[in-house]
Design goal:
It is flat and about 60 Å long. It has two domains: 36 residues; 49 residues. The protein has three helices and no strands. The protein is 72% helix and 0% strand.
Length: 96
C-alpha cells in the first residue's frame, strides 16, 4: 500500500505544523475570547452569574426570569424521576 503524497516528505511536515498551529490557535482564542474557563475559575464565574430575581424591576424581565427558574425546576424534577425509574429498572433486572 502506498502512502499518500501529502504524508510524505515536506508535505507531511507541513501538515503536522498546520495541525499543531491550529490546535494552539484554538486554545488561545477559546480561553481569551471564547469564554472557556479552567476548573479553578469556574466556581467564581458561577457566583457572578447568580443574582436575585426579586431585584428585577421590569415586568417582562421578571416574567422571563420566572419562566427560566420554573423551567430549571421542571427539568431537575424530570431528571430526578428518570433516575428513580432507572434505579427501579436496575433493581428489577438484578432480582431476576
Amino acid at each position: 500500500m502506498e502512502i499518500p503524497s501529502i504524508l510524505q516528505g515536506h508535505s507531511r511536515t507541513r501538515l503536522l505544523q498546520v495541525i499543531a498551529i491550529g490546535a494552539v490557535a484554538t486554545l488561545v482564542i477559546g480561553f481569551s475570547w471564547g469564554g472557556w474557563v479552567t476548573g479553578t475559575k469556574a466556581p467564581s464565574a458561577a457566583e457572578i452569574v447568580q443574582f436575585d430575581f426579586n431585584s428585577l424591576t421590569n415586568t417582562k424581565t421578571k416574567s422571563m426570569a420566572s419562566a427560566a427558574e420554573t423551567s430549571g425546576k421542571i427539568q431537575s424534577e424530570a431528571y430526578r424521576q428518570a433516575e428513580e425509574v432507572r434505579d427501579a429498572a436496575d433493581a428489577k433486572s438484578n432480582d431476576r
